[in-house]
């Protein structure tokens, strides 16, 4: 089996893409779960603030999501650009 | 020391089988243990409700076990998968399938245990709510299982994918990376979904009239938490196309 340098780099880039998205999804998954979990707990305590709590939950989750989106962007770059 | 192609494939299939059932057992066992711990705690406060709490514990543990059963199924399929006459790329696909299933089941196993534990605790607090809490717990646990189901899908895709005969580095690494991506990517959302559902069940037990609004908030929160698992699924599917 002959492997050219270009092939080698592409193969490693694909491995990197998989690792980037895979490992990058761990943190946001757990973090967004914390945000939504505490929001549910708080609605259980003060149901009249449900709208405000849902809004805060979604903003918090959007920020937690950002590193997941960075991982997705880097994975797509490694897949299609490098 | 050289080996035949089918020997390499067989070695990879056995390694994948071990990874699949071994890693998936981690999550399922932690989740079930958490549930049983919470159930014991609840029984110690309310011994007269032990039957009800025991039933909820067993139902919750059965859902958490599903992730482990997925791992067992993939391991069995890998153990009895054909090797003779297959391309050497099959070895990489089998390794990827084992990793995808094993790693993805860790998160869902732990995650499904959390709402079950909260339900046992909640029944100790509000015995009259037992049926509603069980329903909410089952919805939450079911959604927590979805990352493991994504992993199961990718594992099946890798197991049955028709592969070209020639060995090349790019498809080999793509198959392995596809499994790693889906496997690792499902850990976080699995645990996160479980945290959401667990707190929703606790909230409903504390304040029963919030049940409907909590179900809605829980599902919205879980959907957002799930998004990174879906990114991982998309990237894993894109990677598996590189053969």
Low-confidence stretches of chain B: none
By DSSP, the count of extended strands of chain A is 0
Number of helices of chain B: 6
Largest sheet, strands/sense/barrel of chain B: none
How much strand of chain A? under 5%
Mean pLDDT of chain B: 93
- What CATH architecture label of the domain at 27-82 in chain A applies? Up-down Bundle
The helix/strand series of chain B, from N terminus to C terminus, equals HHHHHH
Please tell me what the overall shape of chain B is: elongated
Which fold does the CATH topology of chain B refer to? Four Helix Bundle (Hemerythrin (Met), subunit A)
Shape of chain A: rod-shaped
- Oligomerization state: heterodimer
Largest interface: A-B, 54 and 62 residues
Highest CATH level, the class of the domain at 27-82 in chain A: Mainly Alpha
> How much helical structure, as a percent, in the residues of chain B?
over 70%
Number of helices of chain A: 3
CATH class of chain B: Mainly Alpha
Largest sheet of chain A: none
Order of helices and strands of chain A: HHH
Characterization of this structure:
- The complex is a heterodimer of chains A (82) and B (243).
- With 82 residues, chain A is an all-alpha fold.
- Chain A has three helices and no strands.
- Chain A has a domain at 27-82: F1F0 ATP synthase subunit C (F1FO ATP Synthase, Up-down Bundle).
- By secondary structure, chain B is an all-alpha fold.
- Chain B is elongated, with a radius of gyration of 20 Å.
- Chain B starts with a helix and ends with a helix.
- The chains are: A mainly alpha (82), B mainly alpha (243).
- Chains A and B meet through helix 1, helix 2 and helix 3 of A and helix 3, helix 5 and helix 6 of B.
């Amino acid at each position: 089996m002959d492997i050219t340098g270009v092939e080698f780099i592409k193969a490693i880039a694909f491995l990197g893409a998989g690792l980037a998205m895979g490992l990058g999804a761990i943190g946001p998954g757990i973090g967004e779960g914390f945000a939504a979990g505490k929001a549910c707990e708080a609605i259980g305590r003060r149901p009249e603030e449900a709208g405000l709590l849902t809004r805060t939950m979604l903003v918090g989750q959007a920020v937690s999501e950002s590193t997941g989106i960075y991982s997705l962007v880097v994975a797509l770059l490694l897949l299609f650009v490098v | 020391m050289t080996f035949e192609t089918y020997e390499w494939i067989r070695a990879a299939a056995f390694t994948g089988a071990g990874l699949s059932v071994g890693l998936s057992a981690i999550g399922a066992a932690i989740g079930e243990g958490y549930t049983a711990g919470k159930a014991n705690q609840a029984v110690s406060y309310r011994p007269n409700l032990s039957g009800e709490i025991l039933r909820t514990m067993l139902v919750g543990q059965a859902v958490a076990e599903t992730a482990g059963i997925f791992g067992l199924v993939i391991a069995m399929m890998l153990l009895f998968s054909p090797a003779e006459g297959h391309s050497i790329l099959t070895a990489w696909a089998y390794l990827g399938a084992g990793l995808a299933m094993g790693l993805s089941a860790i998160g869902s196993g732990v995650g499904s245990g959390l709402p079950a534990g909260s339900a046992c605790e909640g029944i100790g607090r509000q015995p009259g709510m037992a049926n509603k809490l069980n329903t909410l717990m089952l919805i939450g646990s079911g959604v927590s299982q979805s990352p493991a189901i994504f992993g199961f899908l990718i594992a099946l895709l890798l197991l049955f994918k028709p592969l070209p005969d020639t060995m090349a580095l790019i498809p080999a690494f793509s198959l392995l990376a596809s499994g790693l991506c889906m496997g690792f990517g499902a850990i976080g959302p699995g645990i996160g979904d479980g945290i959401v559902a667990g707190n929703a069940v606790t909230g409903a037990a504390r304040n029963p009239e919030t049940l409907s609004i909590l179900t809605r908030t829980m599902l919205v929160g879980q959907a957002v938490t799930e998004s990174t698992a879906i990114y991982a699924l998309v990237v894993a599917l894109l990677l598996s196309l590189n053969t």
